[in-house]
Amino acid sequence: MNTATTREQLLDHAQCLIRRRGYNGFSYRDLAEHVGVKTASIHYYFPAKDDLLIAVIDQYTARVRDMLQGIDASLPAKDRLCRYAGLFQGGPTDQICLCGMLAADIASLSDRARQSVQAFFRMHESWLSDVVAAGMQDGSLKSSGDTQADGRWLFAAFQGALMGSRLFQDQQRLQDVMTAVQCKHGVAA
């Protein structure tokens, strides 16, 4: 028995559709078929597709923020980085990060959606930058000398690995990035 509300089901299915097909790759009709409702019901909850998109981004960002906050800040920086890397493992190979997929569709998104996607990227980049800075202090990580740039390239590496894994249906591409940051299976090597 599915106890999720119609709104929750719409958000969850929209997220899956966006992660598989992109923002422009699905319609309210597609979503209605997945959830088993009429398109008018979707419009009741989300009058415009952009309203749905913002709600999906907000939900996804909150879930990911909780995961980042769940990584024990008292661990050595390298262990935190490896736990972060572990967050990318085990996901479906037919989907990529919601905001990574939306970044590819950025030209067709509203300013509000673009700003939400940018905020998601900045959240990761900032978190990674802080971990690299802590790693320089505890001696567990090296930096290029610009921890903000390090946060950006690390996040770009993980996003790129997700896209490559999906393209080739091969999780090894993600493992290659984990190896490069000296992590194996989400723990320090």
Architecture overview:
It contains nine helices and two strands, in the order αααααααααββ. 68% of the residues lie in helices and 2% in strands. It is mostly helical. The chain has one domain: Tetracycline Repressor, domain 2, CATH 1.10.357. The longest helix has 28 residues. Helix 1 packs across helix 4. The protein has a two-stranded antiparallel sheet with strand order 1-2.
Key features?
mainly alpha; 189 residues; 68% helix; 2 strands; two-stranded antiparallel sheet; disordered C terminus; elongated
How many β-strands, per DSSP? 2
CATH domain fold name: Tetracycline Repressor, domain 2
Spatial strand sequence of the major β-sheet? 1-2
Q: Helix content range of the residues, please?
A: 55-70%
Output mean pLDDT. 91
| Biggest β-sheet strands, sense, barrel | 2 strands, antiparallel
- Class of secondary structure makeup: mainly alpha
CATH homologous superfamily placement: Tetracycline Repressor, domain 2
Task: State Rg.
Answer: 18 Å
State the CATH class: Mainly Alpha
The SSE string, one letter per element, is HHHHHHHHHEE
Task: Name the poorly predicted regions.
Answer: 185-189
Backbone shape: elongated
Identify the CATH architecture: Orthogonal Bundle
Beta-strand share of residues: under 5%
Tally of separate domains: 1
Distance between the termini: 42 Å
- Please count the helical segments: 9
